[in-house]
Amino acid sequence: MKKTGYLLAIAFLAVLLTNCTNKSDDYIDPRGTDYAGSESCIQCHQAQYESTLHTSHFKATAPATKENILGHFVNGKNTFVYDKDTKLVMEERNDSLYQVLYKNGKEVEAYPFEILFGKKHAQTSAYWKNHYAYELPVSYYKAINSWATSPGYSATKTNFERKIDKECFGCHSSNIASRYITTSSDSITFMTMEVEDFMSPKTLLYGIDCERCHGPAKKHVHTHLKFPDLKVAQDIVAFKNLNRQQKIDACALCHSGNSKMKLKSRFQFKPGESLTSYFREIPGSKDSLNYDVHGNQLGLLSQSKCFQKSLTMNCISCHNPHEDAPQNLASYSKICMSCHQDTKHKAETVKTLSKSMLANNCVECHMPKQDSKAIRFQKSNTAPVTSYSLRTHKIAIYPAVKK
User: Fold this and answer.
1) Rounded to an integer, what distance in angstroms lies between the CA atom of residue 214 and that of residue 237?
2) Closest listed residue to residue 34, CA positions, set 203, 177, 217
3) 192-239 pLDDT tens trace
4) How many CB atoms lie within 10 A of CB 352?
């Protein structure tokens, strides 16, 4: 009986270990056989995994389910008016969500919500047609708790034909495959011209996942399941082991503007590589001054004295990529005060601002929000134009708040 019990226990453990190993073995990632998929990380990194699920990075794109979408679909909150005869209504039909165009009370066309872009401040949506993604003309903005025109869209004319380039997915997703076709060949220079033929929705990996920042993890998972007592991470990129420039480059891949000359696809980048292999600065470009949406946050940060004087400061000095950005500005002020404890404000500033404000709101004065030049929106054709506001990454003393 004892032998039978031992055999059953061994068999149970064998099945348990086999199931753990097969989680990554059975998974087929569109990026290749070196990838294990983010769900494999939960076996050993549950807290980080569950926290990351709620971050803006992980939600940079998402499937357009009722759980993920931010906007309203109830009467009175789901309509955008173009003119007295034309309106766009956000509707739920048979568990799917649509933007439906009506003219003179009659439905003209309906386009499904299929991909969601963004989460923190606003959310733009897209639909698939002939292997291309097309942006929907109305987006949701948290600042006004309402639907309004998508960036760059008219408040008087509908448009469902704006393609979303693969480059957008390069920073909003972890993978999407495409096919290129030859359009022409130059017999003198022997250069072949290629254009993107289509993108494959089946290969889309929503959001920025674990392996986008830490590299392929299949070997890492196998090693640590086989040797669970290992204390040092094997076969994976740990940010604590990267030098300052490598850490910065990993973030700058998507946070250093869009005006550089592209040499290779962002999807090919692996953490630890140099960004200079992927992009080149364009002479005369003023992109480093661009604070806007999709702007050059690294370029702005690099102009800050805090950054210039530090040997260690990098993006994750202030931002924890495993957690959503805190709404409480005091948490950022604590980071500032860790280096600026002895900073003395001018007498005029001390008189004007409370001690609490001075101690808990460094960001409001030294990284103020500014109106976007790229994103403006309207709630209807008669509503005023509203500017989207965002915080600059250039840490400085600004004239508007200087005391």
Assistant:
1) 5
2) 217
3) 444 555 788 999 999 999 999 999 999 999 999 999 999 999 999 999
4) 13
